[in-house]
Structures are given as structure tokens and as C-alpha cells.
Write a structure and sequence with these properties.
Blueprint: H1 4-8, H2 13-29, H3 47-66, H4 85-95, H5 104-119, H6 122-133, E1 139-142, E2 158-162, E3 165-173, E4 183-189, E5 200-206, E6 212-217, E7 226-237, H7 249-265, H8 272-282, H9 289-317, H10 326-348, H11 358-373, H12 380-391
Helix pairs in contact: 2-4, 5-6, 5-7, 7-9, 7-10, 8-9, 8-10, 9-10, 10-11, 10-12
């Protein structure tokens, strides 16, 4: 753990007081991080293991809430602390020496809480934000469909109004932790007679609603991180719409933007560049000029990523417009993981291809894991389009389907 001299240097009196509070809380409630192999791969190999990790994340989130350390920058009337962005940085610095983590629910809170603050009604904020901060509500994302992934706005999950309810029928896929969560954020098609972006409604749903069925997708590890979700005439109150009926794309864009920022900014844990350097020492290739150049590139990209992440995440916490488009963060980390995955295999050579050594497993995991981060949260191609149109002001990609009624768009 760090010393008072190291962490208090530059702190204002207010920051030093908060740091002392965080330290006292962690010392009383958290488990110090144990020495572990740098090559350990953090994956769940069974459903029971995944559920236990999910429940532990919820327990820790509740502990943070009970001690006034959840939602540090969110208003007090919604259960937050009403504090400053620097509080998040101090908590992150101090908690790095401990094993406790909120796990998966931290991701959907990072995506949905700013969205609710921007688009939800006061009634929705009062119900959802405190319950998310206390982990009473655990939210899964019900966006992607078998025919609507990268082109999310082409989604077909249909919602038909019946009085004060919307009757929803359709299918979602790649829904992380949906089998554990008790609430979901759902995108539906409420008007097929207008262009695809204009007929979408954003709904908050109770996952126990009759007509909602979650089917886990078993991965090679034995766990089921992802799921399919089927909705068969599920009745959802109109009052659960975030933003106007047919006008949910704005809220969806806010979620996607925060998702990109979270994925790109989620750089906790040991540095991959440092691990690659250790690997190069172990395989005695540290003097190889090509390897050294690769290590320098990995280190430089990590530093650039951390600087961009800090600027964007501070803006997100303060509900300000980020100074850098979050898509660049997601794209940058995806490209960086390609570079580090390849470099690990280059360093390990034949030892990276086969065997049961921890280093071999880690190198193979890094190589394979690079593909998922290039897809989840929007493919690299989608991120480049976002940057071109939003950040650079370039003309939108041509396409007939942007003005044509969704009903008339050809589909396979």
C-alpha cells in the first residue's frame, strides 16, 4: 500500500480528508490484494463461479452505498454523494491495493446512470438511480439482435402500444449477465413507418415480466457470459420509456457513447506493456531491436490511452460533453490489443503455441481476447464512422436506408 507522503503530495485539505475516509473504509471492509501470478487469466469456468462473482460484486456495491461511497458525483437526492470528479480518482488509487470490485454491474452503471441523468423523468431517476447505486437493481443491456449488431438502428424487436402498456415481441443476443440481472435496458421498434433511427423507443424492463425468457450461450470455458433473450408479448408500462416514444435513439446513443468510454477507460489491473516486458526478459529477447520497438509502442499507447481516458471519464462523471469523442478511446484500445496480442506471440514463439505453462495460457488468451474487444460495444468500423461524422464533420456514409421507412428496407 502507498504511504501518506506519496498519496498526500499535492492533495488539498479537502482531498486529504476524503482520502483518509476512503482508507479507513477500505481497511475496515475490504480484502487486501494478495500476491498472485502475473500470468493468471481472469475467466470463469462454470456458471456457479460466474454467479458467485456477480453476487459478490453486488454485495460490494451495497457496502459502498451504505458507507456513502457510491455515486460519488451523483446528486444526493438520488442517493449519490454529490461530490467532485477527483473523488473518483482518489477512490480508484486507494482501492487498487484491495481485491474487492463491483464487477459487471459497474459497467452498466457507467453506461446507464449518465443516460438517466440526461434523458429520464424525475420519477424514473428517483426510482432507478438509488436502486442501481445500492445494487437492488442490476441492469443488463438488451440492444443487439441477430440481424442488428453493428447497424443497431435496424433492430426489429417490435413494441405495439395497448393502452398504458407496450406489448413487446422479438429477440436480443449477446446480452451479458442477463441470466443474473433483475432489470434491463431495452431498445424496441415502435414505429416501422419512419426511417430506422426515428421509430425506436428505449424502455426499462423488469426481467421477471411474463414473456421474457433468458437462454444462456455456453462458451468454450464452460461459463455463459452471454445470453439470448426472447420476448413474447411481454407487457411493459409506457411509463418505463426513457425519452419520448419513437425518440429513444438519443438515449441509446448516450449509452453507446458511455460504453465506448468505459471499455476504453477500463484499464485497471497490471499493465499489459509491463507484462510483455517481463515476458521478453523471461524469453531472453529483450535485446532484440524489433521486440524492443514493440515494447516501446505498447508502453506509449498505454500512456496515451490513460491520458485520454482520464479526460473523458472526468467529463462523464461531471455530466459534461467529453473533450474527446469516446469512440476514439474504444478504437484506440481495440487497435492496441491487436498490437500487444501479436507481440506476445512474437516474444513467446513456439512456447506460445502449445503447453500448459501459465505464460502460454496468458499469451494465447491475449491473442484470442483481442477479437472480442474489436466487436463488443461497436465494431472498429462503426467507431471510425462515428469519429468521421461526429468529430471530423465529414459527410455521412451514403445509404438509402437512412431516409427510407424501416418497413421498406430490404432484409435477408
Amino acid at each position: 500500500m502507498t504511504t501518506d507522503a506519496e498519496t498526500h503530495r499535492g492533495d488539498t485539505p479537502e482531498q486529504a480528508e476524503f482520502r483518509a475516509e476512503v482508507r479507513a473504509f477500505l481497511a475496515a471492509n475490504a480484502k487486501p490484494r494478495q500476491d498472485a501470478s502475473p500470468w493468471a487469466v481472469n475467466i470463469h469456468t462454470s456458471e456457479d463461479e460466474a454467479r458467485a462473482a456477480f453476487e459478490e460484486g453486488c454485495r460490494w456495491q451495497r457496502t459502498l452505498f451504505d458507507n456513502g461511497l457510491a455515486g460519488l458525483t451523483l446528486p444526493t437526492e438520488y442517493g449519490g454523494r454529490g461530490g467532485q470528479a477527483w473523488m473518483e480518482s482518489i477512490y480508484r488509487e486507494e482501492s487498487a491495493a484491495y481485491e474487492n470490485s463491483v464487477g459487471f454491474i459497474g459497467a452498466t452503471m457507467a453506461m446507464l446512470l449518465p443516460t438517466l441523468m440526461k434523458h429520464a423523468t424525475e420519477e424514473q431517476k428517483a426510482e432507478y438511480i438509488p436502486r442501481m447505486l445500492s445494487a437492488e437493481y442490476q441492469i443488463c443491456q438488451l440492444f443487439s439482435e441477430p440481424g442488428a449488431g453493428s447497424d443497431l438502428a435496424s433492430l426489429a424487436c417490435r413494441a405495439v402500444r395497448d393502452g398504458d402498456e407496450l406489448v413487446v415481441t422479438g429477440q436480443k443476443v449477446w446480452n451479458s449477465a442477463a441470466q443474473f440481472c433483475n432489470r434491463g435496458m431495452l431498445l424496441t421498434r415502435t414505429n416501422p413507418d419512419v426511417p430506422k433511427h426515428q421509430g425506436i423507443t428505449f424502455l426499462l424492463v423488469d426481467m421477471s415480466t411474463p414473456g421474457i425468457e433468458v437462454r444462456p450461450l455456453v462458451q468454450p470455458t464452460g461459463a455463459s457470459h452471454f445470453n439470448e433473450v426472447f420476448l413474447s408479448e411481454a407487457r411493459i408500462p409506457v411509463a418505463n420509456a426513457v425519452g419520448p416514444i419513437d425518440g429513444g435513439w438519443a438515449a441509446a446513443r448516450t449509452v453507446l457513447s458511455n460504453e465506448s468510454a468505459f471499455i476504453g477507460g477500463n484499464t485497471g489491473g497490471p499493465s499489459i506493456a509491463d507484462k510483455l516486458r517481463m515476458l521478453a526478459e523471461e524469453f531472453d529477447v529483450l535485446d532484440d531491436a524489433v521486440i524492443r520497438q514493440g515494447l516501446a509502442t505498447a508502453h506509449t499507447r498505454e500512456k496515451v490511452l490513460s491520458y485520454m481516458s482520464a479526460r473523458i471519464m472526468n467529463a462523464v462523471r461531471m455530466r459534461e460533453v467529453p473533450p474527446v469523442d469516446p469512440s476514439i478511446l474504444k478504437l484506440y484500445i481495440a487497435e492496441s490489443r491487436v498490437q500487444t496480442g501479436n507481440l506476445g506471440m512474437q516474444i513467446g514463439g513456439a512456447a506460445a503455441q502449445a503447453g500448459d505453462a501459465e505464460e502460454t495460457t496468458w499469451m494465447q488468451f491475449e491473442l484470442l481476447n483481442r477479437f472480442g474487444i474489436s466487436i463488443g460495444g461497436g465494431t472498429n468500423e462503426v467507431q471510425r464512422n462515428n469519429l468521421a461524422e461526429r468529430a471530423l464533420g465529414l459527410p455521412k456514409e451514403p445509404g438509402y436506408d437512412k431516409t427510407m421507412p424501416w418497413r421498406d428496407i430490404p432484409r435477408s
